[in-house]
Amino acid sequence: MEFNVSADLVYNAEEAGTLVLNIRPLKVIKETLLIDPRTINYVDYFSDMNRLLMLPVSEPGEIRISYNATALNEFNYVDFSNLGPSSISQMDPSVLLYLNPSRYCQSDKLLRFTMHLFGHIENEFEKVISITEWIYTNVEYLSGSTTSGTSAYDTITEQAGVCRDFAHLGIALCRALDIPARYCSVYAYNLEPADFHACFEAWLSGHWIIFDATKLAPLNGFVKISMGRDAADTSIANLFGKIIPQSTNINSYKSQGVIEPVFYYPGSTIGLSYIE
Amino acid sequence: MEFNVSADLVYNAEEAGTLVLNIRPLKVIKETLLIDPRTINYVDYFSDMNRLLMLPVSEPGEIRISYNATALNEFNYVDFSNLGPSSISQMDPSVLLYLNPSRYCQSDKLLRFTMHLFGHIENEFEKVISITEWIYTNVEYLSGSTTSGTSAYDTITEQAGVCRDFAHLGIALCRALDIPARYCSVYAYNLEPADFHACFEAWLSGHWIIFDATKLAPLNGFVKISMGRDAADTSIANLFGKIIPQSTNINSYKSQGVIEPVFYYPGSTIGLSYIE
Amino acid sequence: MEFNVSADLVYNAEEAGTLVLNIRPLKVIKETLLIDPRTINYVDYFSDMNRLLMLPVSEPGEIRISYNATALNEFNYVDFSNLGPSSISQMDPSVLLYLNPSRYCQSDKLLRFTMHLFGHIENEFEKVISITEWIYTNVEYLSGSTTSGTSAYDTITEQAGVCRDFAHLGIALCRALDIPARYCSVYAYNLEPADFHACFEAWLSGHWIIFDATKLAPLNGFVKISMGRDAADTSIANLFGKIIPQSTNINSYKSQGVIEPVFYYPGSTIGLSYIE
Amino acid sequence: MEFNVSADLVYNAEEAGTLVLNIRPLKVIKETLLIDPRTINYVDYFSDMNRLLMLPVSEPGEIRISYNATALNEFNYVDFSNLGPSSISQMDPSVLLYLNPSRYCQSDKLLRFTMHLFGHIENEFEKVISITEWIYTNVEYLSGSTTSGTSAYDTITEQAGVCRDFAHLGIALCRALDIPARYCSVYAYNLEPADFHACFEAWLSGHWIIFDATKLAPLNGFVKISMGRDAADTSIANLFGKIIPQSTNINSYKSQGVIEPVFYYPGSTIGLSYIE
Fold first, then answer.
1. Which SUPFAM superfamilies match (chains A, B, C, D) (predicted)?
2. With 90 as the cut, is the pLDDT of residue A49 above it?
3. Does domain A2-73+237-254 sit in CATH 2.40.110.10?
């Protein structure tokens, strides 16, 4: 499917600095980027699974970024009804680093907690479905309840947060069960209020399967921007120097028609795997 | 009932300092205290619900403390089968401070967690029984798994600890449900291996009711040493200056005969309340 | 000196509950308290060094509290220029509990940090002056930078906070140096913007000496409301049930004339000790 | 230079599982690996800057690994005496991810702390020298004082730790100053007692420069095993299933002759950069 996505961002540079933006989808058909003032010469580059824009800001002033793209959203359905046991030694070595604990996903501290809640479930897809259902049921979606310092270790007990916190907790719980998991920053269809969104992927039987414990947007309406270990790797904007965010306006529409929204439920056996 | 309790403690003072011991039961019939070297003149005093011994150590050397006491253990049984709803405004004001979060019992961070697990239970005695059962089932008793810095906030997710950690978690969960709770340092009958022990009390319907989520020793075999907000208030020994613990030998026996051990179980409706 | 202090507080009770207020000065000459609706029958009581008002709220609705008092502010000056070494064993036992770590003052984790920065200073008054100067220099006073969960352990590294955080850090650093310290909730003269304020007291040579690392208000212009281990003990309002703060309006004026403001500076040798 | 390094490791598998070892130097001339029992067929693979061995363990029992290698240690000296100011926008994009906070290096929480201590230093090499000197002076090297959960955020205040903690703190402080930094796991010449060692690299003027705040081993005697964001990425052994470490015996010798040990000191202007 094709989606039209856009991000209008305004920053105020109080001094010279650098702005690193992570807003371009991974699969773009066409795109336009306007930067005001036009004197800013950005550089774009890949860093792992991020398509970054680096904007050196040489003097104080307001910076307006207007980005539009037509992007592809492609995925497969994977049937996990007969998923057999998994083994570390049969995993693709490139995914093993997604078992490591990271800044916001301290899976190393959650081994017993996770084992008690989910250790008895055999099918790993069902395990991750149970994890997202547990988060959805126990964690309250509450804007402003957390900060950029909040991590899965906080959210598991404080039980309030936003999409970023839901994703971090899902990732941490998966890793604690030896399921590789990574963070996804996305444009999301039908998200209310419209904004950037975060969800996560778990490595199941050779596929990165998408999950979203917030259930705020359909799983088949994401346009992926970047993937990484957690939000530390996939920040929408990294600000070096005194550059202050002023406003954000994000949109994501289907190019034509509407989509039939897909969500998982307890008992779901079919997963969605986005094509990279 | 009468119990004979004893504590043989050895410290090595590498320099002058002060040793504050908190080993005397609250209800003593008779006691003996030997301190070697005899030149140490201790002072004893009350501080809230602690009977402290302050030993100024004027020079380096080994310090041997040998304490024996015959102590009373007196309690009532309280029937909670028809316990009605409780209200903050009807509580004795003196217990309200036991609702405050403390160093090792960060109840303020556990409100949602606690509400999700125990909020639906109406009878408050049943609530605390459920809390101790949840701790007993989910937290592994594992010597050496925690340090003096470990708090309830750690234990709730890491799910391993010793008696002190079990008590801290019980207290934190009670306070998060608006049930006043305090830490008890005790001599425990039949504890294996023999050592000082920790449990907690919850304020229910006008009584301090004893609970022990470790289930390692009978509830009716405790000789109370001190009560406080948490282990920070009730340390067996506070060491000021370089005074290093060398060895500890603790015992607790019934003066005559044996006791019929009492434990709570899911469904218990009778609580034990120690007489102060 | 006499001060006129007032607190106008508005809450919205979404359901029945209990409101425990801690707004009455410890040394009141006269006072008036208006509660609207008048059907709320409050109870007042002492809890340690807090003069609490307990208001049972039986039904939903807005609650307006209007409190005015004429209060005494009395203190002595203590000269510490020749302060000799202090010893735990010569302290009044009743102050030893203010050496214990507490919810927001984890002094047990700061022993080496404190020793490295302040261990070389011999005069204990000078030590605490150095602590407050260090906090004043290194921690940024930044409204909104912290939450009710922020503790001294956070502030020592994150180095931003409000009066409460400054006080917690001062207390934690004192206790780590074996200096008893406690939290003070006060009305403050000349505080901009007017609000409740927090500072701390350290036990030096038999006196509770007042300190304020924010330097936002004169040390001789405080009207003490309550003292305790930290903010957990001295909350202006404890809200049980869904009672939501709406607005706060605090004032503190000298009854007649103005005061000559007193602050400490590096090199100060005279401390202020409030008379209880 | 050539070094002979060896690692003899014994594990006890209580059940089937997988052992992932990260013990092979990055620049090996020749090597031998003996695994007992011989039925274990390992797979070796690269994952970023790690040369991993994956050993699937199919049944319980003791596993003995005996690894020997002749490895190269090659480095350049880089003169930083005239180092000009650095700019994010001129950095190689591939190093920017080493500015992100990670599991054990929460640089995002240390911005003010770091700015206060090191912000005034202009030359970035001098900055990192100052960071390592500060760590060396303030943090006590104390075996057993920390656990696998300890992070830079703990060490900065608790000020005790082992090589891993020293490296984590160095990395976190660099990143907080916008200097990319990464963790190095190494064999170290002349380390007492012999063991695996950890240090860190900072990205300065286009070079990864090696630093070691422990000063326990010469900077020119390292044989690099792996680099990563922190210890989470570079674990010597990742154990999946109940596989328990039994013993470790590590050695590192120069193939011929001895080395003239190199350390940095306050005022040093020449850095070492290992050739990858």
1. Cysteine proteinases
2. no
3. no
